[in-house]
Amino acid sequence: MTGGSLGLRTGSYGSLQQGQNGVLQTQNSFIVRKSSRMSLSGSREKERFLPLIYRYFGRRKVGMLILAVFALLAFLTGFITVHKEEASESSGPYIAQTIQNKKNSEVETVTVCGDVNSERPPIPNPFSPAIVTVSSSSLEHPCRHFSVPPPPPGDRRRIGPRPCPVCYLPVDQALARMPSSPSASPVLQHLNYFREENPIKAEPHGGSDFGGFPSLKQRNDSFNVKESMTVHCGFAKGCRPGSQTGFDIDDTDLKELEQFHGVIVASAIFGNYDVIQQPKNISEIAKKSIPFFMFVDEETEAYLKNSSGLDSSKMVGLWRIVVVRNIPYTDPRRNGKVPKLLLHRLFPHVRYSIWIDGKLQLVVDPFQILERFLWRQNATFAISRHYRRFDVFEEAEANKAGGKYDNASINYQVEFYKKEGLTPYSEAKLPITSDVPEGCVIIKEHIPITNLFTCLWFNEVDRFTSRDQLSFSTVRDKIMAQVDWGVNMFMDCERRNFVIQAYHRDLLEQMVPPAGVANLPPPAKDKTSLVKDNMAGRTPVKKNPVKRGRDRKSGSRRHRKVVIGSRDSISAR
């Protein structure tokens, strides 16, 4: 009986009425059968004991007592049934437990959302063993003796950071080295999340309705790593992220996000800020087994529909488009931090994830990336360090100089961390190689300790500025001081090996030449025509160097495509 009713509720989040009917019908039939059975098997006992009961209590009192007992049983049965169904409908893959009285209107309702991801058995390897042709128990790794060569000599035509060679395994060998079970999570085993129906801002600075306004005490307590913890982690108004929590997602898309996946790739574009970049060099097994999710807001969705890039299939190339409504922030960049740092909440049944910013193009197979930066290093979290800056104080000054955020907010955040003990980076922090990440790529295994890390990192972004490079090292160092865990901060040139950075949409539109100029060869002109054009303001001579500079920038993207070819030839696959 119980299994049938639960099957109805978990099969569809919109089938509450069916589940209720099924439960009530089943319970009613059970009561009828039970009463019938009692009338047949216990008739003699009734005849023996009823006269004695009637003698001591009287018929009227006995009848009232029986009615009261049945009423109490009916009330308890209905209450338990409705409570279970409400929890199933509202929480999805989460377990909700209310820890304050809902009936007291004067007390804020707070619920703990238990992540079943920490309770369920390990996700089995979804890939067929027949595909894996290379044993993962090799004595020596093929890339063991690989070393990054020195950078090439300087080139005046191409300044700035460059990709460097990376030794990748062939896809089948990389897949063979996928661990058969999840990595151990040090100390922390069960991670739960606060849910507050009406979050209250009790402190004057920082936080949001979406994040639940955690107090400073709650923030400090969240860095005390224990076996079981409850923390704020976005989506404060519900236990099913994306369902009436802010950052809302259609139910059909939510069910897709809640499926079991061994690996996913995710990205986001908000405010129509970037152009979707299609992944390249993706193996057939990855195309079949790894979903690529692109989160967009309604503004970006409208652009995709108008440009004939999005139809009812919700697919644009390899990307599965997920439209987000009721976005929690006015700043598109801050909205992008939600999927970037809280993928484990949107995808509760995923084992590994690769996040790339919307302006990046993935050009190496995801299995090869995971093998190189997680499995080979026995790491659970990997991110590249900044190519130039290693110190938070220097990063803050660079953000102010570049107008990335208002100076007062940056100063407040840095001074806050300084009072907590933040010091400039030095060699004394080795083996930690940097305090500043290049946060456009995150490679992660979803286990409780890494989920806690990204939750607390998001809380800092929600409380202070959206510049996540400023808060990264504070959260990392506080957790590392509590448990034996670390982050694989690889070189930025290695990151540039598997992703190519494009320009934002506004810059690309400025670079597009007028129609007909780029496609048609310029006609031969005499000196008189050149003078007339110059006087009319068309292609003046003084602007030629600027135009060549813009052409050189757009041409650098073509030059990077050449680098992709050399990348494939260098890689050991």
Account of the protein in words:
Residues about 1-40, about 80-90, about 100-105, about 115-120, about 130-135, about 515-525 and about 525-573 have low confidence and may be disordered. The protein starts with a helix and ends with a helix. The chain is α/β, with parallel strands linked by helices and about 575 residues long. The protein has 20 helices and 15 strands. Strands 5, 6, 7, 8, 9, 10, 12, 13 and 14 form a nine-stranded mixed β-sheet that branches. It has helices at about 1-10, 15-40, 45-55, 60-90, 170-175, 215-220, 250-255, 285-290, 300-305, 330-340, 345, 365-375, 390-400, 405-420, 450-465, 470-480, 490-500, 505-510, 525-535, 545-570; strands at about 95-100, 110-115, 190-195, 230, 250, 260-270, 290-295, 315, 320-325, 350-355, 360, 380-385, 435-445, 490, 500. Helix 3 packs across helix 4 (about 60-90), helix 13 (about 390-400) runs antiparallel to helix 14 and helix 13 (about 390-400) runs antiparallel to helix 16 (about 470-480).
Summarize the helices and strands and which ones pair or pack:
Blueprint: H1 2-11, H2 16-41, H3 43-57, H4 59-91, E1 94-98, E2 110-115, H5 171-176, E3 190-196, H6 216-222, E4 228-231, E5 248-249, H7 251-257, E6 261-269, H8 284-289, E7 292-296, H9 298-306, E8 315-316, E9 319-325, H10 332-341, H11 343-346, E10 350-356, E11 360-362, H12 366-375, E12 381-385, H13 392-401, H14 407-420, E13 437-445, H15 448-463, H16 468-480, E14 488-490, H17 492-498, E15 499-501, H18 505-511, H19 527-536, H20 544-570
Parallel strand pairs: 3-4, 6-7, 6-10, 7-9, 12-14
Antiparallel strand pairs: 1-2, 2-3, 5-9, 8-9, 10-13, 11-15, 12-13
